[in-house]
Model the fold of this input.
Amino acid sequence: MKRALAGLTLVVVVAAGGFLWWGNGAGSVSLRPGTAELAARWYGSTTGKVTLPAQLHWCPVTHVAMLEAVAGDTGIAVVFLERDALASGVHPVLAAAGGTGGPRPAATAALRWLRVRGIDTAVVGLRSEGGTAQLRVVGGVVSGEATVRMRAVLGADTATLHLVFKGVPVVTTASGCT
Done:
């Protein structure tokens, strides 16, 4: 009985700690109403958070959508690989090094920002290793969220990226869609 009570107490303490961590902003991101934005938070061997204006370009020729959120030296890109049309649903996140020739629907992601540590400044780049992305398409506008495991392009940094985007209009491109 004492062992079961101790186990239950441990579960409650861990759950409460997780709730407080999330509620204090460590696991949450927020967006301003009426804006096409992407909010992101990453943690691991490297940490950060950012809210950026976002845009999505859809190529009906290649069935690829590029969600971009860039400002200055900071940028996030999520590439959605579709079977046919841009569609709502869960997209498994693949390793970005794998290219776009894998199973569809799927997604890949990348993150770049300027890190300053003391007098050292470096542009850090991370790319997806796995995870999931949820896409919602309603009336030519996309929203969604993703949790992505990331690894540095150069170096040993790793991070988990949480992102939320909403109100992003779909811009359709054609004629080869570069």
